[in-house]
């Protein structure tokens, strides 16, 4: 479904992403881990068209070349994302945020009633339905991240990219979130590409994990294999990481 | 949000009724009708600014110039093609719409900040102002020419009311049409996109909103309204000169009207225009020499204490003294929601 080949991104002299290859198939939950500054968010930004990667990079989604599309077109083709630093529409209500996802996330024209209905459904999916009429900025940050997830779900995507969506959650909430993410795949047929620092959350949920360090992919495999991978352990011990 | 009927139809009808009746007590006074007409005209300019700046963060500071383009184009098309101004006006409005669209398109493509857009449009304002004076063959230069299009005097004669009053009603019809358009727009998918873009452009793009497209649409709609308002402004003056369309004569007033009335509020442009024109009229009657200075000082006060608009401030005051019951989200802060109840 998503094919990423030889993707690099430089900021001046700094190579933030360095020749990364991988694929994500339908029905997969793929984790992306790595120390701070490894290039995880930058990789998301190249996939979603926020940043243009270097010459020679290739990113296709269902055969379509994403590098020729603008950010909003990539969203409409079914690749939606959440942000590491939360970006809800603070002055809108929680429901309006989710409805906006339904209204603009597809090429099909969606009526406002329909968008509201799908927004409500998406809020229920992440467990925010009783907050529907609140202004989004009044939600705690951790719940704003769930709202971002609901906003992507409302547009009925094929693939969602989640950037540290579990940060700030209690262990109980992390468990609930992991369930939600599994239901994305199982009930909604949505693939997930998930950046996370909280190892318990991602190790227990992902089918496969990709490890980035200094822009390079240093390992890829099942959570079990990644846990026992020496290069990975070293990357985490070597990089002073919390 | 209801898409079947326009929200707040009754409130709009009430406002329309007040303006329909307003000239009756002062029908004899050409001056009074003139003041009322200016209220409508600057409400129209401020409404355009509300769309493009209030809802889209694109600060158009060439409303005077663009209005002038509208006015001169209407006259020139009517004259050279030999059609009535009623047919020439849509052409002029379209021309202004395309100018607004182009400015917005370029600014959005190049991701101009609000400051850059205001500098760009202020420059255009200066260019247009020079052109109005320079293109003497077309515009009559700084002496201008009489502007009595739209055969309103004919209607006035037939109905038996003064030309100025007929013109007032014509302008009122345009303002109400613009209000209907505004309320529809803001409650539609466009309004939702505008709000998302204004709050967070990156988030808006990430959910599939074509930011360039929506900003361009806002620029077009505002351009059309400004072109019409400019034409009507010249018609009200009955004589067109470049001095009608300067930055100080149009843009400053429209901006003040919008801020005083309350940015992003449905009735902000109308309320602001009433307040500002009342102050203007009062000052030119009782303190003509000090008019500009006092007006300037008042503006500073208004900006300092009524930044979210007089409607909000007065309602807050009334609530603070328990004169009215607090209605929902009446708190301070920004008036994000357009009130269309
Ligand atoms: N817009 C930018 N301009 C310049 N440098 C950048 C930019 N964005 C990221 N970087 C740099 O690129 C590198 C990778 O950053 P990135 O945000 O992708 O890391 P990350 O893996 O997401 O880290 P974290 O876990 O802390 O979120 C860092 O060194 C960062 O400072
Ligand atoms: Mg990151």
UniProtKB/TrEMBL annotation, chain A:
GO terms for cellular component: plasma membrane. It comes from the Archaea. Residues 2-239 form the ABC transporter domain. Keywords: Amino-acid transport, ATP-binding, Nucleotide-binding, Transport. GO terms for molecular function: ATP binding; ATP hydrolysis activity; L-isoleucine transmembrane transporter activity; L-phenylalanine transmembrane transporter activity; L-valine transmembrane transporter activity. GO terms for biological process: D-alanine transmembrane transport; L-alanine transport; L-isoleucine import across plasma membrane; L-valine import across plasma membrane. SUPFAM superfamilies: P-loop containing nucleoside triphosphate hydrolases. Belongs to the ABC transporter superfamily. Probable component of a branched-chain amino-acid transport system. This is Probable branched-chain amino acid transport ATP-binding protein LivG. It comes from Halobellus salinus.
UniProtKB/TrEMBL annotation, chain B:
Keywords: Cell membrane, Membrane, Transmembrane, Transmembrane helix. GO terms for molecular function: branched-chain amino acid transmembrane transporter activity. GO terms for cellular component: plasma membrane. The chain crosses the membrane at residues 12-29, 35-53, 60-78, 84-106, 113-135, 166-185, 216-234, 240-260, 290-306. This is Branched-chain amino acid ABC transporter permease. InterPro entries: ABC_transp_permease (IPR001851), LivM-like (IPR043428). The keyword Flavoprotein does not apply. It comes from Halobellus salinus. The lineage of its organism: Archaea, Methanobacteriati, Methanobacteriota, Stenosarchaea group, Halobacteria. It holds the Pfam family BPD_transp_2. PANTHER family: HIGH-AFFINITY BRANCHED-CHAIN AMINO ACID TRANSPORT PROTEIN BRAE, HIGH-AFFINITY BRANCHED-CHAIN AMINO ACID TRANSPORT SYSTEM PERMEASE. It comes from the Archaea. The keyword Endoplasmic reticulum does not apply.
